[in-house]
Prior knowledge:
Layout lengths: L2 H34 L6 H26 L3 H12 L3 H25 L5
Helix pairs in contact: 1-2, 1-4, 2-3, 3-4
Amino acid sequence: MDIKTASALHRLRLISLPEALSFPALLIFGSLLMRVSDIDFLMPPLGALHGLLFTVYVLFLLDVWVKAKWPLKRVAFFFLLAVIPFGGLYGDKLLKQYEADGVIAARARREGTVSA
């Protein structure tokens, strides 16, 4: 894995956790509180924050798709995880594993252990 691919994967991982937590926060603190009480001031800032995080997540996902040459199924799976509440937590776990696998493979290539 080259440095551009590794950094794109790392950026996606960095944004996946905040994005994964912003959606349930929007649903719970924004929508639910607005419907059961008079607290409606949380919805606009939480919605804007989630929208920004989701947009950045999708842009970083597209960047990883191009640089890591992921198959379309994997990209679609990670997009689906971003749409499901708390799905990004599982996606972050997978991204951590992909990142570790890439580092191990790069180290093995550099040491001449494998020719991949």
